[in-house]
Amino acid sequence: MDSELTETYATLWQRTRCVFLQGDAQIDPLLHDHTPDARRGLTVLFRPQPEVAARVAAWLDELAAIEPAQVFYAPAQLHVTVLSLFTATSAYAPYFAQLARYLAVLDAALSSLPLFTVAFQGVTASPAAVMIQGFPTDDTLERARTALRTSLTAAGLGDELDRRYQLTTAHMTALRLRTPTLRAGSICGATRPGAHHRFWGDAGERIVTR
What are phi and psi of 183, to 5 degrees? Predict the structure, then answer.
């Protein structure tokens, strides 16, 4: 496993553990109020193999017994974000008007990249979500992100890239918080990196562009 990425996930979890135990988890107001979300975004992503998604779903069933009120991702919703082309917004029409240009740039930037493998092992968390840790086995994902940033910027479509933060991990969000945690100690125990849940198979993944 990548030692730097392992440290990133561990640091994230340690900070979040304190947040959970203090009762300061970040609740998404739209999820809490069951409000329809009119925001839209555009993201390059890839999805795990079905057997990986099934293992994650089985683990989430266990977590649901601890925190039943939270939002659990269905297997078909699980994904790793390669790059967010623009952050979700209700004013998305100008971006969607450029969709053909976005797709042309994506196809050109990603067409020559090979298959790659991501090992999904362990769990981490942020103040608003629980995530499956992903570990790429080579630098293809990093090269894909670099190629996309370079090509989109050259095409005049890069102004919104990395607006929230620059992605360096390969995590999959699996749970989002809709209400304060009921049993903070239990959820911290279930999500600690030391649990070493293994979710991955050995098949390569392709980047999905559309």
Answer: -135, 85
Question: Above pLDDT 70, what percent of the chain?
Answer: 85
Question: How much is the pTM?
Answer: 0.86
Residues 6+ apart with CB under 8 A from 7: none
Name all domains of the chain by residue range, CATH numbers in brackets: 3-33+40-195 (3.90.1140.10)
Contact call for residues 43 and 85 (beta carbons, < 8 A): yes
Is the CA virtual torsion 121, 124, 130, 134 positive or negative?
negative
- The dihedral over CA atoms of 115, 194, 57, 45, expressed in degrees to the nearest 10, equals -30
- Low-confidence stretches of the chain (pLDDT < 50) are 194, 202-210
Give residue 184's pLDDT.
66
| Burial environment of residue 2 by CB neighbours within 10 A (0 to 12, 13 to 18, 19 or more) | middle
Other beta carbons within 10 angstroms of residue 159's beta carbon come to: 9
Distance CA 33, CA 37 (A): 11
